[in-house]
Amino acid sequence: MSSAVRQWRRPPLIADARLRWALGLGALLYLGLALASLEVNWARVSEGLVRGWRFVEGFLQPDFSSRSDDILLGLQESITMTITATVAGVALSIPFGIGAARNIAPAPVYYCCRALIAFARTFQEVLIAIFFVAMFGFGAFAGFLTLTLSTVGFLGKLLAEDIEDIDETQVEAIRATGAGWWQVLDYAVRAQVMPRLIGLSVYRFDINFRESAVIGIVGAGGIGATLNTAMDRYEYDSAAAVLLIIIAIVMLTEYISGFVRRQVQ
Amino acid sequence: MLRIEALGKTYRTGDRALDGISLTVAPGEVVGLIGPSGAGKSTLIRCINRLVEPSAGEILLGGEAITAVATRHLPAVRRRIGMIFQEYALVERLTVMENVLSGRLGYVPFWRSFLRRFPQRDIDAAFALLDRVGLAAHVDKRADALSGGQRQRVGIARALAQEPELLLVDEPTASLDPKTSQQIMQLICEICAERALPAIVNIHDVALAQRFVSRIVGLHGGRVVYDGTPDGLSTTVLERIYGVADWSALAQPDGERCDAAPAALLATGAGL
Questions:
Q1: For this UniProt entry, which segments traverse the membrane (chain A) (predicted)?
Q2: What are the residue boundaries of the structural domains of chain A, listed by start?
Q3: Which residues lie closer than 8 Å to B164 by C-beta, 6 or more apart?
Q4: Nearest Cβ partner of A187 from B74, B78, B94?
Q5: Global confidence as pTM
Q6: 3-class SS at A103?
Q7: Gyration radius from chain B CA atoms
Q8: Average per-residue pLDDT for chain A
Q9: How many Å lie between the alpha carbon of A192 and the closest alpha carbon of chain B?
Q10: Does A175 contact B at CB distance below 8 Å?
Q11: ipTM score for this prediction
Q12: Domain B1-80+198-272, architecture per CATH
């Protein structure tokens, strides 16, 4: 009977011990150098702290009333922008998402839709907003176009990936009944991706609201524009009121979208 | 009647799945297709409804060359051939009724199927089928709420809703327990007998095949190496199909076959 104790250790992720140590030490060294290269102007920081404190003070006494008209107008614009852009974006992303799914779309359609979605996703919302503001002028229309485009990029990609992940045997079974292409899409594909599509659309709704606040800063209208104006005037109490409203609405939409997503699963 | 002549299939990877298969299935005949994994059983039945494109040979259903039909007209061919799947392949998120009615998709225009407005005749037929397979109480349940045996019954009802001339059955019992497997095989065989519906049943359980079908076709490496009665499955034949192993435990067929003796089966099938 063999009495030797057999040792076992989990095999390391990187088998070569020298490479493992070199990578670890290299990462540490890089972090050290990177931290050393940061130039911090401490005088500027102490000055900024004062300004930051005024901001915090504004937050402690948010002023909802003196700019209430502007705030309400901005809010109304933002919500309109969010709803219209989400509806238009979802409606457009469905055909593009279907076209960008490799398993159901023919190759030329697939490449066109993929390219379009990739293009829509390349630029951050703020950049797209700057472009549309330059093209269509200040206001909510530029914001609407920005959010629609980025919704198509976001939902189109996720929908396409979802369609590529569906259970193929269900598709095969429906095809075997003699169903046409649209019927296969309706019975085998839609049935499988619908709950997630609804969940993602609601999720995109709350992203769009948050983004509407950001793109307003570059002139695309909505509550962001109101916020920007307040900041420019150093009216931190009004700005704080706007931010608090944004936070409240985002939390509300987040809660609602979470609830909806749980329901459709 | 189904006639397959010199059917061949070579996949793009170069794998030769089928090699000169010739087979005739008479009206009302139930054929059990056995063979090891990779023998080409699944490919063979998928060539018949052209879910897989054959690379050589000819398939004739009721005199029409299925292999010559243009892709555009495939739905009209597929709707004549019912198929039952290994993992049921129901659309999980649709109701039982929608799954059964999906068997009618080849017959109704898109708008009707999209609005779920199927002709009354189809709906009556679907209810009758659900009664037949014993699921009348589950019409509006979602398919994923059913047990394995129940799901396969929905699969059977969906295939029958097509009013097929031929039934293709791909490992119907592979995901079921032994008792349910027997019930499902019995149900399939009874239904085939009732309607004089010819069927090809892929099955890896030799004992089950011997018990329920009257003719067995053995595949090995994409070729037919046996075609005959279940009684003819001697050790030599089984070795030719599956390779060398101990076959002594395999029970001899006990004459309970359905298309051979449908009356006897109907009596034992009362508990289904």
A1: 21-43, 79-105, 126-149, 239-260
A2: 17-54, 64-264
A3: B79, B80, B81, B82, B197
A4: B94
A5: 0.80
A6: coil
A7: 18
A8: 89
A9: 7
A10: yes
A11: 0.86
A12: 3-Layer(aba) Sandwich (3.40)
Query: CB of A172 within 8 Å of any CB in chain B?
Result: yes
Distance from CA of B13 to the nearest CA of A (A): 19
As a whole number of angstroms, the distance between CA A46 and CA A92 comes to: 50
What is the rounded average pLDDT of the residues A168-188?
94
Three-state DSSP class for residue A96: helix
Query: What CATH topology corresponds to A64-264?
Result: MetI-like fold (1.10.3720)
Say if residue A128 is exposed, middle or buried (CB neighbours under 10 Å; 0-12, 13-18, 19+). buried
CA dihedral B53, B56, B60, B65 (to 10 degrees): 80
Beta carbons of B92 and A192 less than 8 Å apart: yes
Radius of gyration in angstroms for the set of CA atoms belonging to chain A, rounded to a whole number: 26
Residue B143 burial (CB count, 10 A) = 25
- How is chain B split into domains, by residue range? 1-80+198-272
Cross-chain residue pair B105–A187, CB shorter than 8 Å? yes
Q: State whether residue A192 sits within 8 Å of chain B by CB.
A: yes
**Closest Cβ opposite residue A169 in set B85, B103, B107:** B85
Pairing of strands B30-34, B2-10: unpaired
